[in-house]
Design brief:
With 272 residues, the chain is an alpha/beta fold. Helix content is 26%, strand content 19%. It is built from 8 helices and 9 strands.
């Protein structure tokens, strides 16, 4: 369910698309601002340069289509989605940027109901042109996702390293997952690889081995680790050395399709 970003009351919509222009919270009267047709649930943060410089979106748009790093990360994400959540019906990507990952998922899994969130309208505008009407785009703060048990899968792909309160983001992701659902998270690892690129990208951290898994454990999200230094990731180029992916699952009773992930290979990823 969606919830009011001000009072946490259940947000009801007359159609399935969330946050229409005429929506108003029946409990507190909160309305949601729209900019260029996009609901903005955290408009006070628009224009912020903390965490990411919106001026980089045009550079990303130019690079993503052909750069091996983005292409191979996309292949990894699709593989994790298929292996661990083959029966999923809905997916939220937080920090969707220009929409490159959502576009790949849209093509690969057209049956999914896709929602992308981004803090910066500059990214949302590019994603909207790329994705068309098939994906719902929202502006909100990843630390306060306005939903509870709404999605089968939530993804954060090289996002939480930009946010000081990374565990707060993971808790918000956990809260908006349906029973039996799960999260896919990718992050840069190895602090000793810190470079001027990390400064330019407004990274707050690179993750040490076991650090992200510990965060998942604290929010009671079971997890499997996929590291770039093992054969299962295939063509990961330099991502082999400096990236890690984590798949987290909500432990619960059996749910739709006898668990969203049933039918997948349930073996954990192997570390080296």
């Amino acid at each position: 369910m969606w919830i009011c970003p001000s009072c946490d009351a259940v947000a009801l919509f007359q159609n399935e698309k969330p946050w229409p222009v005429d929506w108003r919270c029946m409990s507190c009267g909160r309305a949601v601002e729209h900019r260029c047709g996009v609901p903005c649930l955290a408009p006070e943060l628009i224009g912020s340069r903390s965490g990411f410089d919106p001026g980089f979106f045009q550079d990303l748009l130019r690079i993503e289509a052909a750069n091996f790093w983005f292409l191979n990360r996309g292949r990894l994400i699709l593989r994790l989605l298929d292996e661990h959540f083959p029966a999923s019906r809905s997916l939220l990507e937080i920090g969707c940027g220009t929409g490159s990952v959502l576009g790949a998922i849209q093509e690969h899994r057209p049956e999914l109901c896709l929602i992308g969130s981004e803090l910066h309208p500059e990214g949302i505008a590019i994603a909207g042109r790329r994705l068309g009407q098939g994906v719902t785009l929202l502006q909100f703060d990843a630390r306060a996702i306005p939903a509870r048990e709404e999605f089968d899968v939530v993804g954060a792909f090289d996002v939480i390293e930009h946010i000081p309160e990374d565990e707060t983001v993971l808790r918000a992701m956990r809260t908006c997952l349906r029973p039996g659902g799960g999260a896919i998270v990718t992050v840069p690892q190895h602090p000793w690889l810190w470079s001027p690129f990390d400064d330019a990208a407004h990274h707050c951290r690179r993750y040490r081995r076991g650090e992200l898994e510990a965060n998942f454990g604290r929010i009671e999200l079971g997890h499997r680790v996929c590291r770039g230094d093992q054969p299962a990731v295939g063509l990961l180029g330099v991502e082999v050395g400096n990236h890690a992916g984590l798949v987290g699952e909500v432990e619960t009773d059996r749910t739709h399709d006898e668990r969203i992930g049933d039918g997948a290979d349930r073996r954990p990823f192997h570390r080296r």
